[in-house]
Specification:
Glutaredoxin; 2 domains; 70% helix
Length: 538
C-alpha cells in the first residue's frame, strides 16, 4: 500500500475518474430524489391516499407504503445485480434510472383516495414497488462502477461521492417541496401543488439518461468479459456458495443493518420527530434538516478519504457506537430546545391510560379495527405526549379510563381530550419564539455526523469484500436488506412502538438495538478491507 494512500484529493483524479464520479453521482442523486419525495411527504400523503379518521392509522398506512419501496429493494438487487454481473454495469443502471424516473413521474398523475377509493393506495404501492426494484439495482451498479474505475489508493475517496448522493437527493427533495409549499397557499398545495415535485422528475430523468449514455463500461468488467471470466450464474455463486454467502451474511448483520438505521434515524426520523412529535412547523423543520445536510455532506467525502488511511471498519463501528450511546439524550435534548412547553407540561402533568382491547398496529388497511384504547393512544401520540399504559380489570364496565393529572376521563372523545390537555398546559404546537435554534441545529448536525461516519466508507467496504465476477450481485443484496429492511422499516416500526408504549422516545430502541448488533458482529467477525485489490481481484 502506498504510504500516501490517504492523501488523495480531487486534483489527483484523472479526467476519466472525474467524469465517472460526476455522471454516476449525478444520476444517483436524481434517483434518490425520486425515491425520497414520497418519504418526505408521507405525513401529508396520509390525508390524500388513505381514509380519514384515525391520524396515526393513516400515518402508519403512509409509512407502510413508504416501507414497501424499501422491502422490495433486495429483490431489485437480485434481479439487476445478476444482469449487471452478466451484461455489464453501465447498461444495467441505465435501465434502473429509467424505471425509477417513470414511476416517480406517474405518482404525480395519480388520483387520490377521494376520487377512486382503495384503488389509489393500490396504485401508489405498485409504483413504490417499481421504485424500490429500480433503486435495488441502482446503488450497487453506481458504487461498483466507480470503485472499478478508482485507483487502489483512493477507492474510499472516490466512492464517497456516491455516498453523498442519498443525502443530496434528500436535500433536493426537501428544497423542491419547500419551494412548492411556500410558493402557494395550503389549499392549492393540497389540491394540486403536491404533484409538482413528482412531475419535475421527468426533467431530471432525461438529463440523467443523457449523461449516463456517454459513459464507457467499467474497465474491470471489460477485462473479465474479454477473458471469458464473467459469471454465468452470479446468484448461485453469490449465495449458494457458503464461502461467499457467509461474507454476504456478515456484511449485512455486521455493517449495513447498523448503517441503515443510523442513516434513517439521523435524517428521516429526526425530521418526523420535529414535525409530528414536537409540533414544529414544517417550514422550520425542513430548513433545519436542510442546513444539517449542507453542513454534514462534505464529511461523507472526509470519512471516505480517512478510510483510505485508517480503514473502513473502524469508522463504521465508531459511528454505530456513538449512536447507541447518545440517541436518547440527543432526542430528549431536541424536545428541551424545540418545545420546552411540551417538556414542562409532561413533567408537571402525568398521564395514565388504563384500557382493554389495545392493539399493536403496524400494517394498517381496510381490515384494521380501532378500539377506544387505540383511538386514545393515537390522539395522545399525535400530540407528542408520553403516557403510562396499564390494563383495566376484567371486571370493569369501562373500556378505557384516562387520567390527565387529577382529571379522569372515561371513554374516548377527542374534543374532551383536547380541552383537558389544553387546560393542563400542553401546547398545540411549538412556540417558535421559545425554540433554541442554535442548539437544535447543533443536535441535528451531530446526528448527521454519525450518518457520514457509517455511510461514507460503506461503498468501498462492500466492493472490496467480493470478487469482480459476482461483485454487483453480492454487494447489492446486503446493502439493500440493511438499508431497505432494517433502515426503511424504521419510521413505521418506531411510530408503532411509540403509540403502543406511550413513550415518545421508545421508538429509539429499534435503531439502538440494531446498531448494537452490528457493532458486536462487525467488530468480532468482519475484517478490514482497505488493502484488498479491486482491479486485480478477478
Amino acid at each position: 500500500m502506498n504510504a500516501n494512500a490517504g492523501a488523495a484529493t480531487a486534483s489527483d483524479l484523472k479526467p476519466e475518474e472525474k467524469r465517472v464520479i460526476f455522471a454516476s453521482s449525478l444520476g444517483t442523486v436524481f434517483e434518490w430524489y425520486d425515491f425520497y419525495l414520497y418519504a418526505t411527504l408521507a405525513p401529508f400523503f396520509a390525508a390524500l391516499f388513505f381514509p380519514k379518521g384515525n391520524d396515526t392509522a393513516a400515518l402508519l398506512s403512509a409509512f407502510a407504503t413508504y416501507a414497501a419501496g424499501f422491502l422490495v429493494r433486495p429483490f431489485g438487487a437480485l434481479v439487476f445485480g445478476r444482469v449487471g454481473d452478466i451484461v455489464g454495469r453501465k447498461y444495467t443502471f441505465l435501465v434502473t434510472i429509467v424505471c425509477m424516473g417513470a414511476a416517480t413521474f406517474a405518482v404525480g398523475l395519480l388520483p387520490t383516495y377521494e376520487s377512486i377509493g382503495w384503488l389509489a393506495p393500490i396504485l401508489l404501492v405498485t409504483l413504490r414497488l417499481i421504485q424500490g426494484l429500480a433503486l435495488g439495482g441502482e446503488y450497487g451498479g453506481a458504487a461498483t462502477y466507480v470503485a472499478e474505475h478508482a485507483a487502489e489508493n483512493r477507492r474510499g475517496y472516490d466512492t464517497s461521492f456516491i455516498q453523498t448522493t442519498a443525502t443530496l437527493g434528500f436535500f433536493l427533495a426537501l428544497m423542491v417541496i419547500l419551494g412548492c409549499r411556500v410558493g402557494m397557499d395550503a389549499k392549492d398545495f393540497a389540491q394540486w401543488g403536491w404533484r409538482v415535485p413528482f412531475l419535475v422528475s421527468l426533467i431530471l430523468l432525461v438529463f440523467s439518461v443523457y449523461i449516463r449514455l456517454k459513459l464507457n463500461e467499467s474497465p474491470v468488467f471489460e477485462k473479465i468479459k474479454s477473458e471469458g471470466k464473467t459469471s454465468k450464474a452470479p446468484l448461485t455463486e453469490s449465495f449458494a456458495n457458503w464461502s461467499n454467502g457467509k461474507i454476504v451474511l456478515l456484511a449485512l448483520v455486521g455493517a449495513t443493518a447498523g448503517q441503515g438505521v443510523v442513516w434513517y434515524t439521523g435524517q428521516f426520523y429526526a425530521l418526523f420527530f420535529l414535525i409530528i412529535t414536537l409540533k414544529l412547523d414544517f417550514q422550520s423543520a425542513y430548513i433545519l434538516i436542510a442546513i444539517s445536510l449542507v453542513i454534514g455532506t462534505p464529511l461523507f467525502v472526509f470519512f471516505g478519504w480517512l478510510s483510505d488511511r485508517i480503514g473502513r471498519k473502524n469508522i463504521i463501528m465508531a459511528g454505530c457506537l456513538l449512536a447507541i450511546l447518545t440517541y436518547f439524550p440527543l432526542f430528549k435534548a431536541l424536545t428541551h430546545y424545540v418545545n420546552p412547553q411540551l417538556e414542562a407540561a409532561t413533567a408537571k402533568t402525568p398521564i395514565t391510560v388504563a384500557a382493554k382491547d389495545c392493539n399493536f398496529h403496524i400494517f394498517v388497511g381496510p381490515w384494521s379495527k380501532f378500539s377506544d384504547c387505540d383511538k386514545a393512544k393515537d390522539f395522545l401520540t399525535k400530540q407528542g405526549i408520553s403516557f403510562k399504559s396499564t390494563d383495566l380489570p376484567a371486571s370493569s364496565s369501562d373500556t378505557i379510563v384516562t387520567k390527565i393529572g387529577d382529571t379522569e376521563l372515561k371513554g374516548f372523545d377527542a374534543k374532551v381530550y383536547g380541552e383537558t390537555l389544553k387546560a393542563a398546559g400542553f401546547p398545540a404546537s411549538a412556540d417558535k419564539a421559545q425554540v433554541n435554534w442554535f442548539m437544535t441545529e447543533l443536535i441535528l448536525v451531530i446526528m448527521v455526523v454519525y450518518v457520514t461516519m457509517v455511510y461514507g466508507p460503506i461503498a468501498a467496504f462492500l466492493v472490496e469484500l467480493f470478487p469482480a465476477r459476482i461483485r454487483y450481485t453480492s454487494m447489492s443484496l446486503p446493502y439493500h436488506i440493511g438499508n431497505g429492511w432494517f433502515g426503511g422499516m424504521l419510521p413505521l416500526l418506531a411510530t408503532a412502538m411509540v403509540a403502543a408504549s406511550g413513550d415518545i422516545y421508545y421508538g429509539l430502541w429499534y435503531p439502538i438495538v440494531v446498531a448494537g448488533i452490528t457493532l458486536v458482529v462487525g467488530t468480532l467477525f468482519l475484517k478490514e478491507t482497505k488493502d484488498h485489490k479491486v482491479r486485480v481481484d478477478l
